Amino acid sequence: MWEWLAGLVWLMGILAVLGAVLGADERENFMPLMKLAVLIYILGLISLLPGS
Amino acid sequence: MWELIAAVSGPPIRLFVLIVVLSAAALAADFLVPQFREWTRLFLLVSAGAAAMGPAIDAVRMMDGLIGKMTVLFLGIYPVLAAGMAAAGGALSLINWNPAVFLFVQGAVVIGGKWMVPLLIASFILDYLSRLVPEIPFARISEMIRVTLLGAISVIIACYSLFITATGAMAWSSGSALAEPLKALLRQHVPLVGSFITDTMGVVGKYSSGMAPIAGSYLIVALLVTSLSPVIYVLLTAFLYKWIAALSEPFAHEDLAGLFDDIGKTLFVLCGIMLIVAFAIFYTAVLSIVLIKVIAGAG
């Protein structure tokens, strides 16, 4: 669980920096892509579950 | 008591001073270079957020250390205690003692350490990430973790009450006129865990009123204060976070105030877990005293 949480912290940190680089308006456009990255990461958690 | 309050309030007060300084710097930066507002917010959240986690993680670490020590202590003491109480038949007739209680107390403490504390740390991290990128929130997951933990704590405390009521001939006899308004006050004004505190007070009260003639009132009071001091420590820390959130709301970034509020909420749940451990310490100490009394009486 800790590896997964550490990975999530890294991902969100990268997204926060990316959001600051893009600015408020551009961030709005890129948000679906950022959410997709989080979705893929959460799917990775499901694949860690036993039996999947 | 004052030493405890001073020890608890020191780190949050330093944190509040830091928040004031960082917020002033961020406000000045926002005014002078408004085009870097996003970066200012990010730096503020990273620096203040990292500082804010300090006292909260300290409280969790204290809890983790306490649970580790208690688990080892209980593993060592319970077989001796169980064998001694079974051998000294007087103890069984004295408190209608049930050996399953030991298994339950040990299980509750282990569950607290293995599952509840890591989940609580995950809840802290998810709250922080929700504030860092507000468009991708994890608020519901961390709320779900808190609600699940509160449910588990309530079940464990209810089981404690059941064990005492089903097996003990103890009755709450002392100071009920004073205790009832106090319980109502706590239940209404301590967020999230107020009812647990009053339930635990009731259970400990039932037990201690029955034990007082055997163990002595002063000893019972000393045991209560000792076992409940970690709970008071965490409760005070949680309230201080709530206070920092309230005081910094007018001038600090709204995400920062929200983060403090969330940390306060999570610490109230930690307080509930602390109650389970406090009860285990109290219960074990009282049973040891009963055993020693019975053996001394028999000898």
UniProtKB/TrEMBL annotation, chain A:
Keyword set, alphabetical order: Membrane, Transmembrane, Transmembrane helix
Domain of life: Bacteria
TM region positions: 33-51
Protein name: Uncharacterized protein
Species: Bhargavaea ginsengi
Automatic annotation (TrEMBL), chain B:
Keyword check for Transmembrane: yes
Superkingdom of origin: Bacteria
Transmembrane segments: 12-33, 39-60, 72-95, 101-126, 147-172, 217-241, 267-292
Keyword vocabulary terms for this entry: Membrane, Transmembrane, Transmembrane helix
Protein name, entry field: Stage III sporulation protein AE
